[in-house]
Specification:
The protein is mainly α. It is about 65% helix and about 0% strand. α2 packs antiparallel against α3, α2 packs antiparallel against α5 and α4 runs antiparallel to α5.
Length: about 120
């Protein structure tokens, strides 16, 4: 079992609803927009606070996913933090969660019949 599967068992993702999806995308767009605004003034401290709040709120809305960690790290790099990484990663996590929820649950194997020697 790989680390992603172990983590997903520990952190159970909530069921995606339209409201959760819209709110997560609004938070992601707000975080990226605020960071662009603060970048113009050269403020560094609020930028990391926005990233931390965005990751916590998005994780609460759609569940934690390992794709959110690279977005958090990329936002710490000065030039790359201008990219809309929160929007992109949030959209990717939503797509993956939807695919997981639409997949039919695995069917259990039928029980084996005991073999009786006569």
């Amino acid at each position: 079992m790989n680390p992603a599967e172990k983590l997903s068992r520990v952190v159970k993702a909530p069921r995606l609803t339209r409201t959760r999806i819209v709110l997560a995308l609004i938070v992601a767009a707000g975080a990226d927009g605020l960071q662009l605004l603060f970048f113009q003034f050269g403020w560094v401290g609020p930028d990391q606070a926005i990233d931390l709040v965005a990751m916590v709120v998005i994780s609460a809305l759609i569940g934690f996913h390992l794709l959110l960690l690279p977005a958090f790290v990329i936002e710490l790099i000065p030039v790359l933090d201008d990219l809309p990484t929160w929007i992109a990663c949030t959209a990717a996590v939503i797509a993956l969660r939807k695919r997981e929820q639409l997949a039919p649950p695995p069917t259990p194997a039928p029980p084996e019949k005991p073999v009786i020697d006569v």
